[in-house]
Amino acid sequence: MTVTLFDEIHSGRQGSSEGLAKTTSSRSWRVVTNNRYDDDVFVIRYGLSSNLLPQLYSPHPSWRALTARKVTASNQADSPHHFLVTVEYSSAPLDKEDKDKEDNPDPTTRPAVIKWNTVLYREAVEKDVDGDAILNSAGDYFDPPIERDRSNWTCVVRKNLANPPTWLLDYNNCPINSSSFVVDGVNVQQRKARLSMIDIGEKQVENDVNFRTVTITLEFKKEGWQASILDQGLKEVDGGVLKPITVDGKSITSPMLLSGGVHIDAPSPDNAEFLDYDIYDEKDFSVLPLT
């Protein structure tokens, strides 16, 4: 199988414009082969592999805003040896996923696909935006407390991998990052991110390469992921012994504010103390496929 002619021709050139984002153009080539069984697929592959045709997404020679988007080949009616090949150009925004597939035939070498959004939740509020306690006219907390809407940023990363990751079983139960890392150009500080979900798709085959698409969801909280609990209870430490808290000789029935294991005589929102606890495992997020 030999191509005896592969020349660009003026016939078939055309273009249109409805503005910078809606401009199209086309170029054509006449191709002749010496085998009557050569088909359109052979002609296109020959032209692309020999660089006789522009590669997909390469710029138009007269206007770089237009890039090659489609190649077609049609056998001419007068002879099985003659083909007309047309390359269509467009200024429409590129589909990044299609371009990645063209640039990286191996699906496991393609860059990760990343998107960001927020997740909403409700939380009880004990202080206002100025840090002052939210109290009723008697100086006590509202019961039940008022609530407000809050949101955390989430980052969803899709990456093709040859196999399920070897670290999979060590990264369950929503671990947080043990050190700073970077995702999509954003520097995330230690203990500010949580690995909230991992999804591993079914096995796929593309260009003779086996792969699975792994989707990782990260959730971020600027104040970190420690649990902050009000220090209060029905008992206190007295001389190293845990005893019920009594007032006027009677054991209390409602929790009282504590400080250092001892009840506060004049409890108020201003002298309330909170205890912070680490409740999530910490893991190295640099092993995650985020690029």
What key attributes describe this structure?
4-stranded antiparallel β-sheet, 3 domains, mainly beta, 2 helices, 291 residues
Q: Which structural category do the helix and sheet elements fall into?
A: mainly beta
Low-confidence residue ranges: none
Mean pLDDT: 92
Counting H and I runs of at least 4 residues, what is the number of helices?
2
- Spatial gap, N to C terminus: 43 Å
Q: Major sheet, described briefly?
A: 5 strands, antiparallel
Listing every helix as H and every strand as E from the N terminus to the C terminus, the arrangement reads EEHEEHEEEEEEEEEEEEEEEEEE
Proportion of residues in β-strands: over 45%
User: How many individual β-strands?
Assistant: 22
What Rg do the Cα atoms give? 33 Å
> Which range best describes the helical content: under 10%, 10-25%, 25-40%, 40-55%, 55-70% or over 70%?
under 10%
Q: Which word captures the global form?
A: elongated
